[in-house]
Amino acid sequence: MRSALVGVIGHVDHGKTALVKALTGVDTDCLAEEKRRGISIALGFCPLAVAGGVIDLIDMPGHERFVRTMISGATGIDAVLLVVAANEGIKPQTVEHVGIAGLIGVTRGIVAVAKCDLVTASQAEAAGRAAEALAREAGIADVAVVHTSALTGAGLGSLRDGLAALARPTAADSADAGIFHLPADRVFAVAGFGTVVTGTLRRGALRVGDAVELQPGGATARIRGLQIHGQAVETAYPGRRTAVNLRGVERADLAPGVALATPGALTAASWLDVELRLLASAERPLKGGAVVRLLAGTTEAGARVRLLDRDRLEPGATAPAQLHVDQPIA
After folding, report:
1. Which of 25, 158, 203, 318 lies 20 to 30 Å (CA to CA) from residue 277?
2. Does CATH number 1.10.510.10 belong to domain 181-261?
């Protein structure tokens, strides 16, 4: 089977959730506050069946207050669906989301010019060209543009075909299948079943009955059950949104940002060696010794920057550095 994990990104109120619903029939705004405010606050997940496989869509909040939630959802994505409203064009969170996608190494995507029923064809084309150029500047070189309308259904067939083309064979036989890693973005308890964690399986395969280690902390547990989009499975492979029911660990024992891994494969650390790139859109240089917020996988922590070959990092530049985080992360 072919699959891909695709992050749906873009500015607030540009039609991401409406487009996902038009494609899948699923309204990913599930919270009462989301319904009341008309914007996405939490991550929304749903599958899109395509010929020969499935696309896992993650609808990410576009409001600037929820950018941390967006970054958490971007963990492990294969490609992006950048939604830009034809009647508004590029906006601040469009730029921010595309920059984040480039930082995490995304190179493939689709620009969906939404709400094309509200503008002329030339206006829609201009919005598409601007969004395509923005994506390419961020390193998303393999990108196509599709003009759409969730209201009229225009372009949805082409968009579905474009998303299907992003799917790749499931890595059931990958060389690292014996070493798994899943950063958890949600942890909760289900009556009668116990502790459940969900996240994107970054590498390796998970199987019912496997022993797992949880880092930071080093607690151990065993997989009681697995689900992918509500369907029970015996094995989960890389790139799939996976719910893991654990035996031997309590919900209260798991902190936000915990990662599941093959026992002995991960270790928690307070010093990280990194390559640091400051976005060209940054308003000012980053000075050595600066205190920043580190978003790594689904973990958020404070960190102090130690630049190794200069005193400050200019916008658009890259440099080797170390980060001293205020809590161990895996």
Report:
1. 203
2. no
**Nearest Cα to 222, choosing from 244, 192, 254?**
244
Q: Do domains 2-169 and 269-329 have the same CATH topology?
A: no
Half-sphere exposure of 273 (CA within 13 A, CB side): 0
CATH number of 2-169: 3.40.50.300
Q: Are 261 and 215 in contact (CB under 8 A)?
A: yes
In whole angstroms, give the CA distance from residue 40 to residue 29.
6
pLDDT tier at 295, thresholds 50, 70, 90: confident
Q: List residues bridging with 201 in a β-sheet.
A: none
Q: What is the DSSP string of 1-61?
A: -EEEEEEEE-STTSSHHHHHHHHHS-----SHHHHHHTS--S-EEEEEEETTEEEEEEE--
Per-residue pLDDT tens digits for 151-179: 999 999 999 999 999 988 765 544 455 68
- Token representation of residue 120: 């002329």
Integer angstrom CA distances of residue 83 from 24, 98, 144, 171: 16, 11, 12, 28
Where do the domains of the chain lie? 2-169, 181-261, 269-329
What is the CATH number assigned to the segment(s) 269-329? 2.40.30.10
State pLDDT tens for residues 60-74: 764 444 456 556 656
Q: CA-to-CA distance for 295 and 301, rounded, in angstroms?
A: 7
